[in-house]
Write a structure and sequence with these properties.
Blueprint (H helix, E strand, L loop, with lengths): L1 E5 H6 L1 H9 L3 E6 L2 E6 L27 H8 L1
Parallel strand pairs: 1-2
Antiparallel strand pairs: 2-3
Amino acid sequence: MVKAVKVQYAKTHLSAILAEVEAGAEVIISRGDTPVARLAPIAQLPGREWGFVPYRVPSSFFDPLPPSELEAWEE
């Protein structure tokens, strides 16, 4: 369903118009009798799955740092 509104109405009722668009409606905004913009819902991007990179942290990652590296962090 396409709904047409004037600019002043759109400015006053923007939150309600956005709720309609989120629900799937399209809204045409007109300046006077001239349509100037169309609000339409955007397609949602699918979420990315965690762990999409095949990588394992080596067990040595958790070993204590050697004293020379610890000193470098303290400088």
